[in-house]
């Protein structure tokens, strides 16, 4: 497709021409490990990069290619790469951007395994990092070093829902020509498009909203074609965390309904947040779509809608918080997010259990903080379940 269409159209059509695939309406599943060459000479040419054509599925696969082309268009990027998990995408990108002696500036409160990876990079490879709140522009500037080769951001931050002002980050990064990487998992390209604001790389755990059906672990990276080409031949091909063709096929199916699903996630979240706010057992509500949220205006500026994730503190103790989870019936106790099913979890003992207590409390993750991934069920049923579980 040449002309760029609306987002809702591109999720269904971008990057795929059915007549190139014998008219198959849906991108076919090329469930094959390798590709035969018509002759030894063609094999030589393909390895030399002289002719187009597939070689081996770790180096490229037509189903995966459609997904990569589609997500690149959806994020407004030049190219994309597909990985076996969100963490494979994160690690491949960070290893692409750093070498021993370099420094990464990172937003505070990043995904737990990304935090673990940064510690491993420091210990084993001498790649250092600072975790910074990204609230005060001058303070952030003070953390930039001569050897800073990457600024790594999550927004909203999990699970406190704090936002990072991407325009501010880009302003700081451009002064020193430092690439900005944004983990856009919580938003998907439908709600937030960091590349349009001047960021350089976008990462997704496609496991979440992009897949949307709780049946795939996968990751994506979107950026400049020159950089994606380099990563394809190094931190993707040689480290080897490639996406399986079947997972790409499932993600292409999930993507088609992304805007429809996210509209509903967001509508449901707003209604649930309004109810939670008024409940006497809810101490604090952390939801970017509520006027009481300190960064309500920033959310309106850089996100299309405030998203489907809500965090809140309940009254009482850790025990009360766990009892509350145990009383949920329709809502499932599980980590992950962005699925059709409403999921609830207790960050202090689950996703953020590895964070030392002092750091955890400083980040705003108390013993009674709850994270809710609002699903696609009727919001009245979700609320009824929460309301009966909150009765303590
Ligand atoms: C889940 C998640 C990841 C990791 O993705 P996997 O697909 O589980 O490897 C990274 N970042 C964020 C924000 C996530 O929610």
From TrEMBL:
GO terms for molecular function: homocysteine desulfhydrase activity; methionine gamma-lyase activity; pyridoxal phosphate binding. GO terms for biological process: methionine biosynthetic process; transsulfuration. CDD domains: CGS_like. SUPFAM superfamilies: PLP-dependent transferases (SSF53383). InterPro entries: Cys/Met-Metab_PyrdxlP-dep_enz (IPR000277), Cys_met_metab_PP (IPR054542), L-Met_gamma_lys (IPR006237), PyrdxlP-dep_Trfase (IPR015424), PyrdxlP-dep_Trfase_major (IPR015421), PyrdxlP-dep_Trfase_small (IPR015422). It catalyses: L-homocysteine + H2O = 2-oxobutanoate + hydrogen sulfide + NH4(+) + H(+); L-methionine + H2O = methanethiol + 2-oxobutanoate + NH4(+). It comes from the Bacteria. Its cofactor is pyridoxal 5'-phosphate. Its EC number is 4.4.1.11, 4.4.1.2. The modification N6-(pyridoxal phosphate)lysine is found at residue 208. Keywords: Lyase, Pyridoxal phosphate. GO terms for cellular component: cytoplasm. NCBIfam families: met_gam_lyase, PRK06767.1. Belongs to the trans-sulfuration enzymes family. L-methionine gamma-lyase subfamily. This is L-methionine gamma-lyase.
